[in-house]
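Q: what sequence does this backbone want?
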């Protein structure tokens, strides 16, 4: 494991090795009780920098660069090569082992199921968690999966995901992201496609589009896990934005309904991206709940 100082912000890089031998990468700042952040899609953890800076005044904040978004671990970074949710959980648990302290876990969107599965895999490693609009499958096989993608038979991904993957293979990442936005966020086709093409013009985002499609596939293959979550005996807060899409609220409500020790929090005036629109508000919400469980 290597710790390297970052002169710009006083943070350092935590690089333990996961159980399967792959490298883990996480940015650490602050001292004290540990909050581990699992970012949402189309990100590497950088979008949580302002939230982490605020929390870092009182906590040791760790932003994991999620395995699904590590281009250096992809066998095919242009067309996509998904890792499983279980493999992502290995990276989470490697960080927990490295810090050797009780951990409060925070997961956003697709980072939410990674957080929940980490709790299921090793509940004694955590003191509690906060999940912001988990991108969870909430219906059974053959029904709606995530937002508007359907699974035809066990083990198969939805038709929308198949079309997204084909767009990547055809060298059309903007088109692939447009299809993703339709099926995962419910946007109308013309808006989703236009947004996808615009995002693909930004080099840093363009490289992450295959990772986003990989992320969707991993969530779909994980399937419905509400029964497993119903056995978690840890305090968990489920957060949703007042202005978020109905599909996001439905997923949050379904996961909350399965958890035995749950608190529901609504972010007033916010949607799915409070961490960038109002990082102060989100940091305070995380801080308030974490203070209660990190004793």
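A:
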């Amino acid at each position: 494991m290597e710790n390297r100082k970052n002169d710009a912000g006083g943070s350092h890089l935590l690089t333990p090795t996961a159980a399967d031998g792959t490298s883990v990468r996480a940015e650490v700042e602050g001292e004290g009780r540990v909050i581990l952040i699992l970012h949402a899609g189309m990100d590497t953890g950088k979008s949580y920098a302002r939230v982490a800076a605020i929390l870092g005044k009182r906590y040791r904040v760790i932003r994991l660069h999620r395995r699904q978004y590590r281009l250096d671990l992809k066998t095919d970074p242009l067309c996509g090569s998904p890792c499983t949710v279980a493999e992502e959980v290995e990276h989470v648990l490697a960080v927990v082992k490295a810090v050797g302290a009780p951990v409060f876990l925070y997961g956003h969107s697709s980072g939410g199921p990674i957080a929940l599965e980490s709790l299921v895999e090793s509940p004694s490693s955590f003191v509690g968690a906060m999940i912001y609009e988990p991108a969870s499958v909430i219906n059974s096989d053959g029904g709606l999966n995530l937002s508007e993608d359907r699974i035809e038979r066990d083990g198969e991904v939805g038709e929308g995901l198949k079309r997204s993957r084909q767009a990547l293979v055809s060298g059309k990442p903007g088109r692939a992201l447009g299809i993703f936005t339709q099926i995962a966020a419910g946007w109308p086709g013309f808006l989703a496609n236009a947004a996808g093409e615009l995002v693909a013009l930004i080099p840093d985002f363009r490289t992450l589009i295959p990772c986003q499609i990989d992320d969707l596939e991993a969530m779909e293959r994980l399937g419905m896990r509400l029964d497993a979550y119903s056995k978690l005996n840890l305090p968990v807060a489920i957060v949703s934005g007042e202005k978020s899409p109905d599909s996001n609220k439905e997923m949050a409500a379904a996961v909350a309904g399965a958890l035995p020790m749950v608190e529901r929090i609504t972010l007033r005036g916010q949607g799915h991206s409070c961490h960038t629109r109002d990082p102060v508000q989100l940091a305070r919400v995380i801080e308030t709940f974490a203070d209660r469980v990190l004793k």
